[in-house]
Amino acid sequence: MQAQAPGSAGTASGRPDYRWKRPQFFTNPFVRWGVPIAGLAYLVWATSTLSINWNRVAAGIPRAGRIFSNAWPPDFSRSNLIISGFTESIQIALLATALGLLISVPIALLAAKNIMPRGLHWFGRGIIIVARSFHPVIVAIIFVKAVGLGPFAGVLTLTVYSLGFVGKLLAEAIEEIDEGQVEAMRATGAGFIKVLAYAVFPQILPRQVGLSIYQLDSNLRASAVVGVVGAGGIGGTLMNSFRRFDYDFALAILLLIIAIILVSEAISGRLRSGLS
Amino acid sequence: MIRDPSLQELKRYNWRRFTPAQRIGRYVAYLVTVIALVWTIRGLDIYWPWVWDSPAQMADLFGRMYPPDFTNMREILRVLMETINIATLATLMSLFFAIPTAYIAARNTSPHPALVWLGRFILVSSRSVNTIIWALLFVAIFGPGALAGVLAVAFRSVGFIGKLMAEAVEEIDPAQVEAMKATGAGPGKVLMYGIVPQVMPAFFAVTILRWDINIRESTVLGLVGAGGIGLILQGSIDMFAWRQVAAILIAIMVVVVLAEIVSAWLRGKVLD
Predict the structure, then answer these.
(1) Distance between CA atoms of residues A83 and A79, nearest Å
(2) Which of A109, A194, B123, B242 is most buried per CB count within 10 Å?
(3) Which of B159, B102, B92 has its CA nearest to residue B126?
């Protein structure tokens, strides 16, 4: 707020000349002006480096009209292709979620500071950081090269994706547990495994169940795209239809992906709110 | 007072972790899981010899990647910069669509109930289509290049930023809006002085978080021809230049981790 400066003239009535000023989000004036100026300079520079061919962009407008008119109405006639694609996607998502959840538990234990000796937890954390850094599609192309085209590469990809996300949040949940129960178990003379089974796992179980429902939903979304690089599922069917300019079939697949994601999101949201 | 159990009763009493009903519930859950997994494994078109062979294949692949080959570092850094630029420009661009959509999708600010549904429809459609699929569409329309990538990332971000902003707008304190109205302020002033200051921290936090996610998303755009580092990644894989692939993967990881650190730091600054 504007304090009354000693030199500033008071009004005739003797009250200080107080004028309200809108509080600013950035209190530092250098930051307040620096951010937009730097932002604008960046915008101009970054746009200039992208080397956009404006003629090609202009040609895109009528082309978009053609694509959309070809896409309408969506063509659901090849339903066997659609059904087998979606079934495969759902199966990839299910198997990857199960494997990912299974592996995420030991990894999360490895990464938790209160379970592992200090320093050693960086090993578990390193695995989680690597798994989380790469977009599933990048992981998928590597696995496709290593184990061949098909759903197995997709399962491996989404397993890595799940263990990164679930492992991170589970490790955080383990670090937040109540140490009293751990100590109580130790006081009875229980070994490491029993401490885990009776003092650690019961405390993180609700979190893990919530995470697994969430992860199943995310894996279902991701399973629709790993197919783009040949890792099985509906993504491959979608990619092929795009490559063949089969836009009405592509639109049908796209609409079904959206519908399935909405249904899965609604179920997952309902289940998770029921848990808490 | 509860009567102390007699020794006889204590002997009969056997501590169990779960009640019978809980136990049955657990068995049913296990059974459903096992059935789902069996259905999945039998249904998936998996060629098992490849599965058993896969550890050897992976070891071979990672062996070929070592040591990483950084001789093309200049080129890698250039496309990495392009990737960051795509993510940043797309985040900024998405704000132009996300803010008005959030405004009409939030129940307390929307001018008309029908617009709430229109806004939500826009947000849901943007969110349900993955960035890669948006990229396929924009590459088909505008041809391969970074522009398609920027548009793809921006179109996916509108749903994310718009949804979270609409929720932030719905959670504001209505008293401040009412106070502004009581002074006779018009809708523009109510927005500027009653609503905007309340959602400012959420706005910056959400935008920065999405920028961080967009960096990760932009690394794969090149695989469908939409610019960024994915293009040379695909090229190196196709040429079996595995040591260069390793260098690119390391570069991606460094940038993604740095972006996450920067984003967490900025969000911490904005939110307190």
Answers:
(1) 6
(2) B123
(3) B159
Is residue B29 within 8 Å of B37, Cβ to Cβ?
no
What number is the average pLDDT over the span A49-73? 81
How far apart (Å, rounded) are the C-alpha atoms in residues A260 and A247?
20
**B61 near A CB under 8 A:** yes
For residue A181, being part of any structural domain is answered with: yes
Q: Please write the tens of the pLDDT for every residue from B195-241.
A: 888 898 899 999 999 999 999 999 999 888 888 898 899 899 888 88
In-domain check, residue A200: yes
- State how many domains chain A has: 1
Query: In Å, how far from its chain's centre is CA A156?
Result: 17
Is A190 part of a structural domain of the chain? yes
Q: Could you tell me the CATH number of the domain that includes residue A260?
A: 1.10.3720.10
Q: What is the b/e burial string over A196-209, where b = at least 16 CB atoms within 10 angstroms of the residue's CB?
A: bebbbeebbeebbe
Q: How far is CA B219 from CA A7, A45, A221, B6, B125, in A?
A: 58, 20, 18, 70, 23
Q: What is the pLDDT of residues B139-153, one digit of tens each?
A: 888 888 889 999 999
Q: Which residue of B has its CA nearest to A49?
A: B82
Inter-chain contacts counted by CB atoms under 8 A, chains A and B: 158
A138 → closest Cβ in B57, B124, B233: B233
Cβ of residue B227 closer than 8 Å to a chain A Cβ = yes
CA–CA dist B135, A134 (Å, integer): 18
Q: How far apart are CA B201 and CA B197, in angstroms?
A: 8
Question: Cβ contact (<8 Å) for B147 and A95?
Answer: no
From B40, B46, B233, residue closest to A94, measured CB to CB:
B40
Distance from CA of B12 to the nearest CA of A (A): 22
Contact criterion met (CB < 8 Å) for B54 and A92: no
Structural domain that includes position A110: 79-275
Contact between residue B226 and residue B148 where contact means Cβ atoms under 8 Å apart = yes
On whether residue A51 sits in a domain, the answer given is no
Mark yes or no for CB contact A152/B128 under 8 Å: no
Residue A86 is encoded by which pair of tokens? 């979606």
Tell whether B118 is within 8 A of chain A (Cβ): no
Q: State the complex-level ipTM.
A: 0.82
Q: How far apart are CA A4 and CA B219, in angstroms?
A: 54
Residue B34: closest CA among B46, B45, B26, B23: B26
